[in-house]
Inverse folding.
């Protein structure tokens, strides 16, 4: 069995850390048994969790409000993780593209279209990284049979 790609491992680790609305509501249900604030701890709000725990969910008013606030709490708990979602460095993506392209090589346009995160890659950053890889002798530059500038593995 082949090992999982690196990005798949990152995605699995991220999914394990993400908070879920249904679990938050399940923790909210503990307030019906007298244990308030567990949903706050779960959603990375330990200070308000402690306050809810010692004040019976702000005398029940905070717990009642949380019925409506839980989706937002989950979103705010997940936001930092989603922003830090790991993408392979541009350098590695370009070298992988060069290897996949083989003798045909790839153009700047090919690189911009292939790099992650899609739609957020700056063409100037791609050009700068390709220039850096050329100076480090990790890529070669030439022209294909149509005269286009292409980059290949050395």
């Amino acid at each position: 069995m082949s090992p999982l790609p690196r990005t798949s491992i990152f995605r699995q680790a991220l999914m394990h850390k993400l908070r879920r609305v249904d679990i938050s509501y399940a923790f909210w249900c503990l307030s019906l048994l007298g244990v308030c604030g567990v949903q706050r701890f779960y959603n990375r709000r330990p200070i308000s969790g402690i306050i809810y725990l010692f004040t019976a969910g702000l005398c029940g008013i905070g717990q009642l409000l949380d019925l409506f606030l839980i989706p937002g709490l989950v979103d705010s708990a997940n936001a930092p993780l989603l922003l830090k979602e790991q993408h392979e460095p541009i350098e590695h993506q370009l070298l992988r593209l060069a290897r996949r392209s083989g003798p045909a090589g790839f153009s700047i346009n090919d690189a911009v279209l292939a790099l992650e995160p899609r739609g957020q890659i700056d063409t100037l950053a791609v050009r700068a990284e390709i220039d850096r890889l050329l100076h480090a002798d990790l890529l070669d530059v030439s022209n294909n049979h149509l005269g286009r500038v292409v980059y290949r593995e050395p």
Observations:
- The longest helix spans residues 61-83.
